[in-house]
Amino acid sequence: MRLCEADAAAVESLHAELSSLGLADATSARALARARLAAGRPREAAAALAPLLAAPRLAAPTARLAEAVAAACAAAGLAEEAAALCSAPPLPPLEAEEEASLSATLRPAGLEEAPPRLERTLAVLKPDAVKAGLEAEITSWITQQAFEIVDIRRITLSEERARQWLQVSWGTSAGDMERRFFQEMARFYASGEIVALLLQREGAIQAWRELLGPGDPSVARKHAPATARAMWGTNKQANAAHGADSERAAQREIEFMFGEGCAVADPKLSHDSTLSDDPSPKTRVERSW
Length: 289
Known about the structure:
This protein has helices spanning 5-20, 26-38, 42-49, 60-75, 79-86, 127-131, 135-144, 159-170, 180-189, 204-212, 217-223, 228-232, 247-258, and strands at 118-125, 148-155, 194-202, 241-243, 283-286.
């Protein structure tokens, strides 16, 4: 899914203003590169990253974004730009971790797709993204994709609560708790703070799944470079963010994180709904849960 030109232009304008004030930094440069990449302008995305590539050691978000932009440049036949990005200092090798595979819900052939409705879904920023200080960067990017962030909850899960979360999000039975990757993932979710986001927009569930990208960030950077996991993910486990894969899953997960009464397709939601005057929801902090 691409940013519209108006959104990309807004990011360009903000970056130019920050530059004129001497306030532009790596975060704003990455935001500019992502906006250009999402708008289908890989050459300009590479140009936005160029000043950051002179560093002897790249920050992980910069290195991963450079890889995604390089892939897009190569696909567009921009060999020189791709080569320049590929010459950036590499990240150290990372161990691949297993993640539960989520089955895609396929629409029966021959049926017309219903128009998107206003709905809600759950996004979770995983411990790797929060520890890396990427929360503001990712949530800003999410709002650029036409999502309203209805509520935010910062949580530190106990390992037991993390296991309960995985049973809810994966829909697994108690027997699956003995599987190695289940226990590893539970420990991962309990390893640091997570951020739960209650998102709202038309077709929110499918839209967020598409914006997440493939579960393996290396695959995402090759095939879907403008997605969240391509830009911020490290490996199959530490892949930056989670999203519900169906309406039923979204309902379970929203209730787990935000309590009962938060419906996916809330009868009170309509196309006439207006956003709050304050687009920044109150953040609830849970130190342990």
